[in-house]
Sequence to fold (191 residues):
Amino acid sequence: MVGFQDETWWSRVSPPTVSVWTDEGHPSRLVERTVPRRERKALACYGLLVPGAYHGGDQDEVWLRFVDGRPVSALTTAFLDWCSQRLAARGVRVWALIWDNAAWHVSREVVRWLHAHNRTVKQSGAGVRILACRLPVKSPWLNPIEGHWRHGKRQTLEPGRVLSAEELETRVCRYYGCDQEVHLMIPEKVA
Fold:
Protein backbone atom coordinates (compact mmCIF):
# COMPACT_ATOMS: atom_id res chain seq x y z
CA MET A 1 0.00 0.00 0.00
CA VAL A 2 1.25 3.48 -0.80
CA GLY A 3 0.38 6.17 1.74
CA PHE A 4 1.26 9.86 1.70
CA GLN A 5 1.96 11.39 5.12
CA ASP A 6 2.26 14.99 6.20
CA GLU A 7 1.52 17.36 9.06
CA THR A 8 -0.37 20.62 8.98
CA TRP A 9 -1.55 23.42 11.23
CA TRP A 10 -5.20 24.49 11.32
CA SER A 11 -5.21 28.17 12.21
CA ARG A 12 -8.07 29.63 14.22
CA VAL A 13 -7.12 33.22 13.37
CA SER A 14 -5.36 33.32 9.96
CA PRO A 15 -7.73 32.53 7.11
CA PRO A 16 -6.47 30.52 4.13
CA THR A 17 -6.15 32.19 0.74
CA VAL A 18 -9.61 32.20 -0.83
CA SER A 19 -11.43 33.95 -3.66
CA VAL A 20 -15.08 35.00 -3.55
CA TRP A 21 -17.56 36.69 -5.88
CA THR A 22 -19.18 39.84 -4.49
CA ASP A 23 -21.39 42.62 -5.74
CA GLU A 24 -19.54 45.47 -7.39
CA GLY A 25 -18.50 48.10 -4.86
CA HIS A 26 -19.06 45.75 -1.88
CA PRO A 27 -15.82 43.83 -1.42
CA SER A 28 -15.81 40.95 1.03
CA ARG A 29 -13.29 41.39 3.81
CA LEU A 30 -11.89 38.87 6.23
CA VAL A 31 -10.93 40.63 9.43
CA GLU A 32 -7.84 39.61 11.39
CA ARG A 33 -8.94 37.81 14.52
CA THR A 34 -7.37 37.17 17.90
CA VAL A 35 -7.86 34.59 20.62
CA PRO A 36 -7.32 34.92 24.36
CA ARG A 37 -3.69 34.60 25.35
CA ARG A 38 -4.06 31.19 27.03
CA GLU A 39 -5.86 29.56 24.09
CA ARG A 40 -4.16 27.87 21.14
CA LYS A 41 -4.05 29.91 17.94
CA ALA A 42 -3.64 26.81 15.80
CA LEU A 43 -4.08 23.05 16.00
CA ALA A 44 -1.43 20.68 14.66
CA CYS A 45 -2.31 17.34 13.17
CA TYR A 46 -0.77 14.41 11.38
CA GLY A 47 -2.46 13.06 8.29
CA LEU A 48 -2.16 10.04 6.04
CA LEU A 49 -3.65 9.99 2.54
CA VAL A 50 -4.78 6.48 1.61
CA PRO A 51 -5.55 6.42 -2.12
CA GLY A 52 -8.95 4.91 -2.98
CA ALA A 53 -7.44 2.06 -4.97
CA TYR A 54 -5.97 0.61 -1.78
CA HIS A 55 -9.21 0.24 0.12
CA GLY A 56 -11.50 -0.87 -2.67
CA GLY A 57 -13.12 2.48 -3.35
CA ASP A 58 -12.71 5.37 -5.72
CA GLN A 59 -12.47 8.06 -3.03
CA ASP A 60 -9.23 8.80 -1.22
CA GLU A 61 -9.26 8.53 2.58
CA VAL A 62 -7.49 10.94 4.91
CA TRP A 63 -6.68 9.65 8.39
CA LEU A 64 -6.10 12.37 10.99
CA ARG A 65 -4.65 12.56 14.47
CA PHE A 66 -4.47 15.92 16.21
CA VAL A 67 -1.64 16.52 18.64
CA ASP A 68 -1.29 18.39 21.88
CA GLY A 69 1.61 20.69 21.12
CA ARG A 70 3.61 20.44 17.92
CA PRO A 71 4.86 17.55 15.78
CA VAL A 72 7.96 15.94 17.27
CA SER A 73 9.69 12.57 16.87
CA ALA A 74 7.85 10.84 19.74
CA LEU A 75 4.48 11.84 18.29
CA THR A 76 5.58 10.82 14.79
CA THR A 77 6.35 7.29 15.96
CA ALA A 78 3.01 7.13 17.80
CA PHE A 79 1.22 8.19 14.60
CA LEU A 80 3.12 5.65 12.50
CA ASP A 81 2.28 2.91 15.00
CA TRP A 82 -1.43 3.89 14.93
CA CYS A 83 -1.46 3.86 11.11
CA SER A 84 0.35 0.53 10.87
CA GLN A 85 -2.17 -1.07 13.25
CA ARG A 86 -5.07 0.21 11.12
CA LEU A 87 -3.40 -1.00 7.94
CA ALA A 88 -2.67 -4.41 9.46
CA ALA A 89 -6.35 -4.74 10.34
CA ARG A 90 -7.08 -4.26 6.60
CA GLY A 91 -4.65 -7.01 5.68
CA VAL A 92 -1.87 -4.74 4.38
CA ARG A 93 1.58 -6.33 4.67
CA VAL A 94 3.86 -3.56 3.31
CA TRP A 95 3.33 0.19 3.52
CA ALA A 96 5.32 2.47 1.21
CA LEU A 97 5.32 5.64 3.28
CA ILE A 98 5.85 8.76 1.16
CA TRP A 99 6.77 11.81 3.23
CA ASP A 100 8.99 14.88 3.27
CA ASN A 101 12.25 15.58 5.08
CA ALA A 102 10.82 17.26 8.17
CA ALA A 103 13.25 17.22 11.09
CA TRP A 104 11.01 14.84 13.04
CA HIS A 105 10.90 12.41 10.06
CA VAL A 106 14.66 12.10 9.72
CA SER A 107 15.50 12.17 13.44
CA ARG A 108 17.49 9.35 15.00
CA GLU A 109 14.52 8.44 17.17
CA VAL A 110 12.20 7.91 14.18
CA VAL A 111 14.85 6.07 12.13
CA ARG A 112 15.57 3.74 15.07
CA TRP A 113 11.85 3.19 15.64
CA LEU A 114 11.33 2.28 11.96
CA HIS A 115 14.22 -0.22 12.05
CA ALA A 116 12.98 -1.77 15.30
CA HIS A 117 9.39 -1.90 14.02
CA ASN A 118 10.38 -3.58 10.75
CA ARG A 119 12.65 -6.04 12.56
CA THR A 120 9.80 -6.99 14.91
CA VAL A 121 7.39 -7.45 11.98
CA LYS A 122 9.89 -9.60 10.10
CA GLN A 123 10.64 -11.79 13.12
CA SER A 124 7.03 -12.24 14.19
CA GLY A 125 5.54 -12.50 10.70
CA ALA A 126 2.68 -10.22 11.80
CA GLY A 127 2.13 -6.55 11.19
CA VAL A 128 2.98 -4.05 8.48
CA ARG A 129 6.50 -3.38 7.25
CA ILE A 130 7.11 0.32 6.59
CA LEU A 131 9.27 1.42 3.66
CA ALA A 132 10.00 5.11 4.20
CA CYS A 133 10.41 7.00 0.92
CA ARG A 134 11.47 10.63 1.28
CA LEU A 135 10.50 13.32 -1.14
CA PRO A 136 13.10 15.85 -2.33
CA VAL A 137 13.62 18.89 -0.11
CA LYS A 138 11.21 21.80 -0.68
CA SER A 139 8.89 19.95 -3.06
CA PRO A 140 5.43 19.92 -1.46
CA TRP A 141 3.71 19.65 -4.86
CA LEU A 142 4.93 16.03 -5.06
CA ASN A 143 2.85 15.01 -2.04
CA PRO A 144 -0.86 14.70 -2.99
CA ILE A 145 -2.01 15.23 0.60
CA GLU A 146 -1.03 18.90 0.27
CA GLY A 147 -4.00 19.49 -2.05
CA HIS A 148 -6.30 17.83 0.47
CA TRP A 149 -5.00 20.19 3.17
CA ARG A 150 -5.67 23.24 0.99
CA HIS A 151 -9.26 22.21 0.20
CA GLY A 152 -9.94 21.24 3.81
CA LYS A 153 -8.77 24.62 5.11
CA ARG A 154 -11.07 26.43 2.69
CA GLN A 155 -14.05 24.26 3.67
CA THR A 156 -13.59 24.76 7.41
CA LEU A 157 -13.26 28.55 7.18
CA GLU A 158 -15.61 30.63 9.36
CA PRO A 159 -15.55 34.26 8.22
CA GLY A 160 -17.92 35.58 10.89
CA ARG A 161 -16.17 34.54 14.09
CA VAL A 162 -13.27 32.64 15.63
CA LEU A 163 -14.01 28.95 16.06
CA SER A 164 -13.11 27.28 19.32
CA ALA A 165 -10.42 24.61 19.07
CA GLU A 166 -13.08 21.92 19.57
CA GLU A 167 -15.34 23.36 16.85
CA LEU A 168 -12.45 23.56 14.40
CA GLU A 169 -11.38 19.98 15.10
CA THR A 170 -14.97 18.77 14.67
CA ARG A 171 -15.31 20.59 11.33
CA VAL A 172 -12.02 19.20 10.07
CA CYS A 173 -12.93 15.63 10.99
CA ARG A 174 -16.40 16.03 9.47
CA TYR A 175 -14.95 17.38 6.22
CA TYR A 176 -12.56 14.43 5.87
CA GLY A 177 -15.13 11.90 7.08
CA CYS A 178 -12.93 10.55 9.84
CA ASP A 179 -13.52 9.88 13.53
CA GLN A 180 -12.23 12.27 16.18
CA GLU A 181 -9.47 10.27 17.81
CA VAL A 182 -7.80 10.96 21.12
CA HIS A 183 -5.01 13.50 20.64
CA LEU A 184 -1.47 12.23 20.35
CA MET A 185 0.59 13.47 23.26
CA ILE A 186 3.90 12.80 24.88
CA PRO A 187 3.24 11.17 28.25
CA GLU A 188 4.64 13.10 31.16
CA LYS A 189 7.51 11.33 32.86
CA VAL A 190 6.76 10.38 36.43
CA ALA A 191 9.78 10.82 38.69
In short: Helices lie at 73-89, 108-124, 145-155, 165-176.
